[in-house]
Fold:
Amino acid sequence: MTAVDGVDLHVRAGEVFGVLGRSGAGKSTLLRCVNLLERPDEGRVVVAGRELPALSGGELRRARQGIGMIHQHFGLLGSRTVAGNVAFPLEVMGVPRARRAERVAELLELVGLADHAKAYPAQISGGQKQRVGIARALAGEPKVLLSDEATSALDPETTDSILELLRRLNRDLGLTILLITHEMNVVKRICDAAALMRDGRFTESGPLRELLARPGSELARGLFPLPPVPHRPGATVADVTFVGAATGRPVISTLAREHDVDVNILAGAVETVGGAPVGRLRIELPGPPEGNAQHLAFLREAGLTVEVASAVPAEVLRVGGAPPDVAAVGTSDEEAK
Amino acid sequence: MSWTEMAPLLRDATVDTLYMVGVSTLLTAVFGLLLGVLLVLTDRGGLLTAPLVNRVLGAIVNVGRSLPFIILLIALMPFTRLVVGTTIDSTAAIVPLTVGAIPFYARLVEAALREVDRDVVAAAKAMGASVREIVVKVLLREARPGLVAGLTVTVIALIGYSAMAGTVGGGGLGDVAVRFGYERFETEVMVATVVLLIVLVQVVQMLGDLMARRLSRR
Structure:
């Protein structure tokens, strides 16, 4: 059985990349391929400039020490205290005992758990457990963090606090994060780029801003769930997306004033995506699309993405050809080539 | 039989039982753990997947577990002579007791190790831990309560098996119960040995439970 097929994933250094998909889509397998917990049958895996499948057993173990990973069910050692759990990777790395204690204290401070060093996992909450997981994943000062549904077992508020922590680590430590999730909210809150995965393949992928500006993007529609398109004979229904600078200008009212056209707003939403405000409006213009060509062109010239709603095919947008599986994480562009 | 006659008899028998069960428990713990770990490691999806080795080990364990202990005791005589140089005394009884208990405990070890959260093992692997580190620091350590509980069950089974050690002159409480209580109708001796065995089993179970509870951090 092929779980992941023809996936070309390139995460830039310092980026938060989310792979979104339902369970069974192959996300988890893909993530496990990145640190070779799962060995791909063919293709390349390059992490922080190193070609992992070419490494020997010992080299691979050392390479893994430089790749952090956090898990849906935390994966903490129940028989060790919080501090003991964070010390574990340091033991594996052969860090001397005295230095270990120091480093454990630093890491617990970083994730806000300094007070819980002596507690056992069974005595702390889910959110705190994941913080321990994060502290542990950072022990080896990794450049890359892999997150396997890290917030899926948490309630919404805890999820938010964990996502905030990940975002902060991304900014402060320059940590490259590759995460998989089935929650659109996770992508919306912290990802710079994302891919949608289905049946072992990416159906679309790219920086969020580009995806939002891409007509027919399922991810964009997921980020902005607008109600179903109403059937309006004799009118043009269009979805207009504002990204970045365009959000600051009164484009719609300019259109109405300068072109003397009645713009009817059917639905709308403003969200913060990847830290930037993004808006989407569903508008209605009188007359068929052909008659509104110049109005739509005006909006496009103003830097907005315009999709005539009824004309959008439900067909999924396919990305490029299908090269052999390639996953490059935390590499600069030239390294990935 | 008077109490003064009975006392040294019971004392010697208790010492024999403790000796046989004690030594065979130690040996069983070592080899049972080893075999249990191998069963888990070589299984499909294990850290050292080796289906053929796994099947062979599984078959050996099953054969060991299907033989009635009394048959094992006799069938192993040549092997016992090879190992301890004799086939009649309590030291000789230790060999079949150990051989009989290893597969029993190995299965309990296997079950306890399988209970360890897969995410924990994946996490250790992702941290770059070696197979040895995962076995020692993750599997065996996380499974400690289960391993202790399993060993408790095994010790009690060994106490039961040791009653048959008399067949090879191993002595022990069970042997006294059979020879005096059953064959010579000395009811007081029977009652006394049974009471001693009950106390022994109770104490072992209590200690085992206490230890398992102290090791468990849930």
User: Anything to note?
Assistant: The mean pLDDT of chain A is 86. Chain A has two domains: 8-211+319-336, 218-311.
